[in-house]
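Fold this complex.
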Amino acid sequence: MKEIVEVAVGLPITKTFHYRIPEKMKGSFQIGMRVLVPFKGRKVTGFTIDLLDQPPKGIEEKLREVEDLLDDAPLIDPQMLRFCRWISEYYLYPLGEVIKAGLPPGLQLKSELILSLTQEGMERLTRGGLDPIQEKVFREIERHGKISLKKMLKKFPAEVSRSQFFSWKRQSLLNIDAEIEDKEVKPKFEKIVHYKGGEPAKRLSKKQAEILNWVREKGEVSYSELSKRFKSPSKAIQSLQASGFISISKKEVSRDFSVQSDLKPYPKPEPTSDQETVLAEILKGIHSKRFSPFLIHGVTGSGKTEVYLRAIEEVLAQDREAIVLVPEISLTPQLLSRFKDRFGENLALLHSGLGRGERYDQWRKIWKGEVKIAMGARSAIFAPFKKLGIIITDEEHDPSYKQEEKLKYHARDLAVVRAKQVEATLLLGSATPSLESFYNAEQGKFRLLSLPERIKGKPLPHVEIVDIKKEEGLLSEKMRTALRKNIEDKKQSLLFLNRRGFANFILCPECGLTFKCPNCSVTLTYHLRDHSLQCHYCDYRIKAPGDCPRCEGHRLHGMGIGTERLEQEVRTLFPHTQVERMDHDTTSRRRSHQKILKRLESGKIDILVGTQMIVKGHDFPNVTFVGVISADTSLHFPDFRSSERTFQLLTQVAGRAGRGEFFGEVLIQTFNPDHYSIQRAKDHDFIGFYQEEIPFRKALEYPPFSRLINFRLSGNSEKRTKAVTEEMGKIGQSLLKSGYQKGIEILGPSTAPFAKMRGKFRWQMLAKGKSSQLLHRFAQELASRMENETKGKGVSLDIDVDPIFIL
Ligand code: ADP
Ligand code: ZN
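Structure:
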């Protein structure tokens, strides 16, 4: 019988801990189950990662007992645990937190601190003489009996601090106890009414007869459906049940996300000969049941999706399972409805747009083996399948695969790792592969497959570049003419501008004042609709002033354009057309995104203005014109991938035009007409772009020719954060001298691209190296030496392996 359990706690702690298994729970433990364990005066959830016969040497005495076992079946299997261990090591992130990140939110119990008054505290309150704030706070606690510390801090943010509560505790006025937060998501059950038969001995009431009839016809009906059909049926149902005509049982149901397949159905086409060739290779991989990685380079509209669908059919036939990763799934209802049309209910959906309960249910369907396909945004890579046969990453170049918070993983890279670990087939698909993936294909790590033409030989759109150095206004003469012509032809147009809001910032021309976010080092964006100034990073917003608050000048005006302004301008230019906008601001409500796409599909929109939301894989046959308002925004990003990003965006957005019967036209406005990103996008020439870009990367030793790890320090105090940063620089240099010099290069430390973000001051240091292993060893050493430096200083170190945005 195992005596000891090794636990990874769901906290940012790298170490794992051992606990003794209480006598009465012996034999019920399995790896992958959650446990509740005492930890620094609290109770926290952790994951069982190993079971041992006896305690590891040296810690026999101190072991404490597990408080409780929270599952009766493991949430993660050994395969998933192995995957999480890899992630934990590669991204230098605590194992417990990695496991947690892979589970749906709401599954983890957390303990929270609960306040109540002691006898002494009560008496002081009755006796009076407390200072006014203390009295107010104590009254509130008394009113509730028990209340969480968190809630109290929210109620009195300005009046009391956390440490104040603890000092009252020390004075024996308060109790502070750790209790379990009970907000766990649970499966949902539904009552089902079954028909049992039999002849009514006595006359049934009209309602009873109707209900019985209905249940008889259906065989079984859910209670909720009966309640919808019949007015307050509970009495009637009860008596029918008592007489034995029907029985009632409970069944677990799914809070369904109900994909509205209200888009056009997607019939199954015969594959083209290009698709056949590509599929033949992929099927070989699938049949081998070995790790078989492919990069499918297929131009927009070349039929990649059909290849995915057929590959999955093959995997299902082997009784294996499939994960399909897509960038931000809520943005691609078309893709989803294609999968629904082909695979029906055999599909679970995982993404952040779902409610907590829905997400949990989708996860459970996979976990219980009820579905064989999981589709979703990056977190779907954690889908708990046990017999994975294929992982597909559509639009593999898309930056949204990188998680930028907490565990900063890249889902495409994890797709490679997981497929390799479980010997599955891997499909990475894109019209504009990332440089890393294409380079991997060149190196023979991935097998390159191409779909060089659009389906049915449809031509790629004709792209023209407009130099706007000599133009005035938002829309060049050419752009206006093209739009006008498209309206006359009764065709649809898309206008792309990668910035939302009305004006980038507001400036007082008299005193030069601009409005900055108090929490972030950015200017506030002006939004016309509610006359507000907003920070797009921390959501800080204020009312836009009429006059300059500094010099009282009357001439405040907006600089730089956003989609809101573009929409207004287009409406003014073409007053009798249907113009709509799709960006973060117009799609915040649930399903609003789908509704806009639906209106576009049914022809109710003539011109759709939008941010990169309109770039994703939509397929609208009547869209024949695409205009790019400014190709330069992404070009000037302080990132070594800015050329690549620009090429990808332009190629993808151009790919939206001319997908139907009609030829597509694209206009790109830019200040840099000769830039190779723009020129190659004009020619739909990925290979050409790759060949021009790769020498730069090589010369500067950027990925794919090296690996990068970014170390970012952030803290509320500028002074302290800066001091810790200086220490980090010294530690970095001393590590170099201790043997890392040959193979690691350090850039910085310096201020981060956004020196202040959400109220925190930020510095960073970048390490670059050719060998990933060496770089990781360096990072581990640096991180462990930094632990002491950051402790107690309110400064935290964030490690970003393969960062996307760097300076
Ligand atoms: P991609 O994913 O490469 O952008 P899609 O899979 O969306 O391309 O295919 C583009 C269009 O071609 C879609 O409308 C799709 O229905 C159609 N299509 C794909 N394969 C075939 C085929 N073999 N025969 C006919 N039409 C096809
Ligand atoms: Zn801000």
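Residues 718-740 form the longest helix (23 residues).
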